[in-house]
Amino acid sequence: MAPLIMLIAATLLGRTAGLFGVEALDERPAALRLGLAAMVLLTGLAHFVEPRRASMIAMVPPSLPRPALLATATGVLELLAVPGLLWSPTARWAAAGPAVLLVVMFPGRRLRARREVVFAGRPATPLLPRTLMQLGFLSACLVVVFG
C-alpha cells in the first residue's frame, strides 16, 4: 500500500508544484514521472532495509536460485531507474525497466499472497488488491513509456 500512496502523493505534489510555476513539472507526464520515481525509489530501497529485505527474499519463488542475490539485483535495477525517470530524455527507457520488473516479479507477489507471507511484520496484501495495484503501477510505467 505504501508504494501506491507514494505514487499518488508524489504525482499530486509534482502536479501542484507545476501549477504553482515550477516549469519542469508544469505538465502531467512530468508529474507522473516524479511520482513513479518516488515509488520506485521506495520499493528499491525496501530490498536493502530490514525487515522488508527478509520479506523480499521470502517472496522469491523456491524454484529460483539464490533468492538473496535476486532480491539485491532487483533492488539495484529499481534504484538505477530513478534518475532516468527524472531526466526527460531517458524517462521512456527508464520507465520500461520497472514495467518489465513488475511483470517478471509478479509470480513472487502472487506466491507471497497465496502463502500469506508476513511482509515487514504485516500480512501480505491479498492477491486481488495486489493485482489491481500492480496493474496501476504497470499502467503508470506504460503511460511514461508510450507518452
TrEMBL record:
Question: Which BP terms does GO give this entry?
Answer: methylamine metabolic process
One GO CC term on file: membrane
> What name is this protein filed under?
Membrane protein
The record lists the organism as Actinoalloteichus fjordicus
